[in-house]
Amino acid sequence: MLLWPWRRLLRWWAGVVLVLVLTAPPIFGYGADPLTPQGIRQEFALLSARLRQTPNDVTVLNSLGILYARAGQLNDAILLWNRALTINPRYIHLYNNLGSALKAQGRVEEAVRVYQAGLAITPSFWIYYNLGLLEKDRGRYREAAHYFRECLRQNPRFEAAAQRLEDLGYVLASQQAAQGIPYKPPTDLEALSLTMLERMEGEEGGGEGAEPRPAGAPSDTRRPWRAAGGADLPVTMTVETCAAYLEKMAQGAPTRLVALTFDDGPHPSITPRLLDLLQAHGAKGTFFVLGSRAESYPELLERMVREGHEVGNHSWSHKSLVRLGPATARADLQRAAATIEACTNQPCRLVRPPYGHTNAEIRAMIHRSGWAHIMWDADSRDWQLSDANQMLARTLRKTSPGAVLLFHDIHPGVLRVLPVLLPALRQCGYRFVTVSELLRLQGSRS
C-alpha cells in the first residue's frame, strides 16, 4: 500500500519558510499580502489543513506543489504532483507543472513524456510553449518552431511564442500561424472615451494599498452621474437604510448599472466563499487576478468563468507598473495575461495597475498592447478597515449609476460588506454587470 509521506513534507517546511523569507522579492503595499512570507506561511497552513481533511483533493495538491517549487524544493513538488496525477490524470495543469520541474532538474526526456501525456488530454498552448522552449534549449530548432507554431494556433495573441519564432528566423511562420483564428474583442475599446476607461478615486492618495502615489499618477475624479452634494449617510447600515441612501445618490437615473470588481486574488478560502455569495445574490463581477496566484489556483479562475464572471489582469508580481517602467511592466503583464488565458480559455483584455499606480506612459503602453486600462470609483478599503459599517460608508459615498466598486478577495472584509450591499443595490434597482458590459453599455452614450 502506498503511504502518503505527509509528515516528511511538513518537516521540510521549516526550511521552505526560511528560503521564502530570504528570497522573497520586495512587495509594495500592505500587511498580510499573500505575496509576502507571512502571507505564504498563512496560505501553506490553510492548504495543509485542507489536505489533512481531504487528502485526495487534486487542486490542493497542485497548489502546495507550486509553493514548494517556488521555494526551490522541486523533489517535494514533484512528489505532490505525481500523487495528484494518480488521483486525477485529467487535471491538465499538473502536466505543465510537473514537466517544468523535471526540465529544471535536467530530466529532459521525462519532461518530454509528461508534456506529451498532457497534450494527449488537451492541446494546451502553455504545454506547446514549454515544449518549444525545451527543444530550443537542446538545439532542436525545427522541433522548437513546430511547437511554438502550435502554441500560436491555440492562442494567437501569445506574444512570447511569436517572439521565440522570430528569434529562430520564422517571422512569416509566426504570422501565418495566427491566420484563420479570428479574435473578436468583447467591445470596441477604441470607441470608448478615456474618462470611462481611466476613472479613479482621487482621495487619500491612491486607493488600493498603502503605497504613496508616484509622480505622474492621475488625480482626475470625474465620472458620470455623480450625485450633487451627496446625501447624509445612514447611522445604522442595514439593507433598507443603505438602499434609501443609494436611491438619493441615483437622483432618479432610469438605468442603474454597477460593476463589482475584486483585486489581488484568487485566495483558496475567501474567493470560493465570495463566489458562493455572488451566486446566491445572482450578481456578476470582474476579478482582477494576479498571474502568480492564477497559476496556483487555476480551478478558481475556471469557476469564475463557468459562473459568468469576468477575469482581468492585475499583473504577475503586484509591483508598481510606474516604478517598473513601461518595458518591464509590459513583460510582467504579458506573463500574467498568458497564465490567465491558459486557465480561462478566454482572451484577457482588461488591466488594472496594482495600487492604482499609473501615468501617461503606462496608460499608453497598455493601450498599445491592445488592453483596456481600468480603474475604479468607490474603494471600500476592505484591506485596511475592520469595521463593516466603515467599509460600507466608504463604498456608498461613491456609488451611483455607472460606478465601478473596488474590493479585494484576499481579505475577509468583503464577506462582511456584500451581504448588506448586494441586496441594497438590488432593492434600489441596480443591475450587476461586468466591467466589459459596463463599458459597452456606457459607450453607447458617448
Automatic annotation (TrEMBL):
Coiled coil: none annotated. Residues 256-433 form the NodB homology domain. TPR repeats lie at residues 58-91, 125-158. This is Peptidoglycan N-acetylglucosamine deacetylase. It comes from the Bacteria. Residues 201-225 are annotated as: Disordered. The lineage of its organism: Bacteria, Candidatus Ozemobacteria, Candidatus Ozemobacterales, Candidatus Ozemobacteraceae, Candidatus Ozemobacter. PROSITE patterns: NODB, TPR. Keywords: Repeat, TPR repeat. GO terms for molecular function: hydrolase activity, acting on carbon-nitrogen (but not peptide) bonds. One of its GO terms (biological process) is carbohydrate metabolic process. InterPro entries: Glyco_hydro/deAcase_b/a-brl, NODB_dom, Polysacc_deacetylase_ArnD, TPR-like_helical_dom_sf, TPR_2, TPR_rpt. Gene3D superfamilies: Glycoside hydrolase/deacetylase, Tetratricopeptide repeat domain.
